[in-house]
Amino acid sequence: MKKTKFIEDREQLEKLAPVMKAPIRRHVFVCTGKSCSQVGAADVKKEFERILQEKGIRQGKESKGRNPMGEIVLTECGSVGFCSIGVAVLVYPDGIWYGQVTADDVREIIEKHLENGEIVERLALINIPQ
Amino acid sequence: MKKTKFIEDREQLEKLAPVMKAPIRRHVFVCTGKSCSQVGAADVKKEFERILQEKGIRQGKESKGRNPMGEIVLTECGSVGFCSIGVAVLVYPDGIWYGQVTADDVREIIEKHLENGEIVERLALINIPQ
Which residues pair with B91 in a beta bridge? Predict the structure, then answer.
């Protein structure tokens, strides 16, 4: 395993991880565990990528078609226990877990929830109190 | 791809996903992307598993040594942009991103932050406002 030196200097850290300077508002996780993958997780993730990048709000490297100052972070994650009711999509820091999400639901989640803070009630199954 | 029928009945959903009934307080993500894996992500994740299960606070199936009514969910996730300053560990809904985490830091994150709500400042690099 690679041993690395602990860096304390904030400026140096920001150069290594520009995401530290982004005005992140929401973090979306799409479960790409085995069961969610069988019901379309890859398509759900691709649709998030497509629409978020089209809107220019996905945080990430410009060379990947993303926005270094984007407000939305999109990441895949492992199983969260929604294996029978996937695809699971989580939105934090709101603490909302969506189940049974298909690619057709993605635009609604982006435009209602990510952009306007309104939960898509028909898909929301868990709401973690803050 | 498997086509599934949309389930509306809450009781049926809870049977399929018992995590819906758990009193979740915090969700920890350990990045297991390529770069974080090179600096010990697997060890960090294992240490979270070990201590959380020893304390009986990790949500999950009893058959896996977890607690169906546990307050902490532990999940792995893909790259979040901390590739040069891993291992990345995220704690939600708090919105805290830790960097440069090693297995030696895990007990402190669990006992200070997950159990007592105090951020481990020396490792915290991003704080997403709620």
Answer: B28, B96
Closest residue in chain A to residue B19, using alpha carbons only: A81
| Strand residue runs (E) in chain B | 26-31, 72-77, 89-92, 96-98, 124-127
Average pLDDT per consecutive 10 residues, chain A (130 residues; last block may be shorter): 83 97 98 96 98 98 96 98 97 98 98 98 96
Residues of chain A in contact with residue B63, where contact means CB-CB under 8 angstroms, are none
Strands A89-92 and A124-127: unpaired
Q: What is the pLDDT of residues B66-76, one digit of tens each?
A: 999 999 999 99
CA distance A111 to chain B (A): 19
A80 CB within 8 Å of a chain B CB? yes
